[in-house]
Amino acid sequence: MSEFATPSEERNWAMFCHLSAFSGLIIPFGNIIGPLVLWSMKKEHSALVDREGKKALNFQISMSIYIFVSAFLVIIGIGILLLIALGLINLIFVVMAVVKTLNGEDYQYPLSIKILN
Questions:
Q1: DSSP 112
Q2: How far is the CA of 84 from the CAs of 10, 65, 77, 98, 102, in angstroms?
Q3: How far is CA 72 from the centre of its chain?
Q4: Is 86:78 a contact under the CB 8 Å cutoff?
Q5: Contact at 8 Å (CB) between 5 and 46?
Q6: CB–CB of 41/27 below 8 Å?
Q7: Is the pLDDT assigned to residue 9 strictly greater than 60?
Q8: Membrane-spanning residues where (predicted)?
Q9: What is the pTM of this model?
Q10: Chain segment 51-102, per-residue pLDDT in tens
Q11: Residue 72 in contact with residue 40, Cβ under 8 Å?
Q12: Neighbouring residues of 71: CB distance < 8 A, sequence distance ≥ 6
């Protein structure tokens, strides 16, 4: 992205930061690696991409923590339901973030631990 990126290009890159979390469906830890790579590449060129990339990373790291704990809870029986719920929550919240970002609106992920400021 050049220093003369249009607002539309910035929104697209910010949207890709959120959308890249779905790479976790194919690549182990892709839900973190995808947003991390895009954010790292574009954060210096756009405040919007920097902000949205951090949000996407914080949420995906949080979801990974929740999934790890739920996987451990499978032993006592409630983990399966938690894993299903977390999968649905991840899908719904990422789609909401993508739509809001493309519309130029601010979206804060619920359940997100603020790791990156």
A1: -
A2: 33, 15, 13, 21, 28
A3: 23
A4: no
A5: yes
A6: no
A7: yes
A8: 12-38, 65-98
A9: 0.89
A10: 999 999 999 999 999 999 999 999 888 889 999 999 999 999 999 999 999 9
A11: no
A12: 79, 83
Relative orientation angle of helices 7-19 and 47-73, to the nearest 10 degrees: 10
* 11 neighbors 102 (Cβ within 8 angstroms): yes
Say whether pLDDT at 1 is over 70. Answer: no
- As a whole number of angstroms, the distance between CA 92 and CA 104 comes to 18
CA R_g for the chain:
15
Q: How does pLDDT run across 32-49, given as a tens digit for each residue?
A: 999 999 999 999 999 999
Distance CA 107, CA 83 (A): 24
Tokens representing 79 are 């983990």
Phi-psi region of 111 (alpha: psi -120 to 50; beta: other; left: phi over 0): left
Whole-angstrom distance, CA of residue 34 vs CA of residue 22: 8
CA distance 80 to 21: 22
The DSSP secondary-structure symbol of 116 reads -
Instruction: Give the 3-state secondary structure of residue 30.
Output: helix
